């Protein structure tokens, strides 16, 4: 399906941990398979991860939003909202960056994963999101006001692609299925770096601890889990999720430790794990569903999206959920043994993005 003149497509994921970056992997891979040229924009951690995953791939530095969550308290949501002026400043800066970049290099199309400044008046631009409804945790009046602002940003793009399945059987619930959609919206199914692999593997009995997300909450959970993993009697694989952390001076023999891993290394670790302990970030959930893995979810305190997803999936009997505050590894493992772990009927939703992407690229 490749054309004689390859299209250069800018792909820019949000720097909210690496989840937005990993879920762009199938898009990047399919663009390459179509004979076109992906140009990935991100901060240094994102660029390093993409280079490790794809090898020789064109990439450009773009500063991130650097969103953080402070300590666990009931004002966490308000603390996040207090960062909105800085986020707006970043959106303005990245829009100016794009205007300048479009004069310097050839760009035929833009795919932005939750980066709201990367729209263009003359270059077709798409924004990918799974969160149309924004849950502030501050009540319905605040949520409606934020929704109006949110849609005004989405509508600056020519298209909005929602990373979820349409209809009642979906992953995002009310996050991705509002009463009224933004204009030019399409559901593109689920995105996972593991969408084309075998999920029917008999697991081992080790625990896979998979850390991710913004600081300082990633580090807080890491300290909690590391201390309890040391005392655990069984085998543990511990993935820090950051290259900025110095590995522990002493690593017990029952723990296999990694700072960060590529998709190639992570895949067998996930496939063979008896159970995964991780955040309830949407990209992580898409990966878990693709591999049909059992998990213990610990939502990031104050991140209302993760808290909503975790509660919804727990209520449906799909994933066991526990809080970070007061977390006890052995208690969680014992309770998870009696959890139903119903499967998500969403396997057919991986790959839905391909015809949408192909049609969009064909029109560039």
Describe this structure in words.
This protein folds into two domains: 8-190 and 348-362, Glycogen Phosphorylase B (Rossmann fold, 3-Layer(aba) Sandwich); 207-345, Glycogen Phosphorylase B (Rossmann fold), CATH 3.40.50.2000. The strands form two sheets. It has a seven-stranded parallel sheet. It has a six-stranded parallel sheet with strand order 10-9-8-11-12-13, sandwiched between helices. 41% of the residues are buried. The two termini are 14 Å apart. The protein has twelve helices and 13 strands. The model is unreliable at 71-78 (pLDDT under 50). The protein has 364 residues and is an alpha/beta fold. It has helices spanning 19-22, 25-33, 44-54, 76-81, 84-104, 140-154, 217-231, 263-272, 282-291, 304-315, 329-336, 353-362; strands at 8-13, 37-42, 59-61, 109-113, 125-129, 159-162, 185-187, 207-210, 236-239, 255-258, 275-278, 295-297, 320-321.
């Amino acid at each position: 399906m490749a054309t004689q003149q390859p299209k250069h497509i800018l792909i820019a994921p949000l720097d909210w941990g690496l989840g937005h970056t990993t879920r762009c992997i199938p898009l990047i891979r399919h663009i390459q398979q179509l004979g076109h040229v992906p140009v990935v924009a991100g901060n240094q951690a994102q660029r390093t991860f993409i280079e490790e995953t794809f090898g020789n791939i064109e990439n450009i530095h773009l500063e991130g939003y650097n969103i953080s969550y402070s300590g666990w308290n009931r004002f966490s949501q308000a603390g996040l909202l207090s960062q909105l002026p800085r986020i707006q400043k970043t959106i303005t800066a990245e829009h100016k960056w794009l205007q300048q970049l479009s004069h310097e290099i050839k760009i035929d199309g833009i795919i932005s994963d939750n980066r709201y400044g990367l729209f263009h008046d003359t270059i077709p631009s798409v924004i990918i999101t799974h969160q149309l409804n924004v849950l502030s945790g501050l009540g319905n009046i605040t949520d409606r006001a934020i929704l109006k602002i949110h849609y005004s940003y989405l509508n600056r793009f020519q298209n909005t692609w929602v990373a979820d399945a349409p209809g009642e059987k979906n992953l995002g619930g009310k996050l991705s299925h509002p009463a009224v959609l933004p204009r030019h919206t399409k559901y593109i199914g689920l995105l996972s770096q593991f969408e084309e692999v075998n999920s029917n593997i008999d697991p081992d009995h080790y625990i896979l601890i998979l850390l991710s997300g913004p600081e300082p909450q990633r580090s807080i959970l890491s300290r909690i889990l590391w201390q309890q993993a040391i005392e655990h009697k069984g085998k543990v694989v511990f993935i820090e999720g950051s290259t900025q952390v110095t590995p522990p001076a002493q690593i017990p023999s029952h723990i296999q430790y990694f700072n960060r891993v590529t998709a190639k290394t992570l895949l067998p670790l996930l496939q063979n794990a008896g159970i995964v302990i991780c955040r309830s970030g949407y990209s992580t959930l898409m990966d878990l569903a693709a591999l049909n893995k059992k998990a213990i979810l610990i939502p990031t305190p104050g991140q209302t999206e993760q808290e909503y997803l975790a509660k919804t999936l727990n209520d449906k009997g799909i994933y066991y959920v526990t809080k970070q505050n007061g977390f006890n590894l052995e208690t969680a493992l014992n309770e998870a043994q009696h959890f139903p772990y119903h499967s998500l009927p969403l396997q057919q939703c991986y790959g839905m993005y391909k015809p949408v992407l192909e049609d969009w690229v064909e029109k560039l």
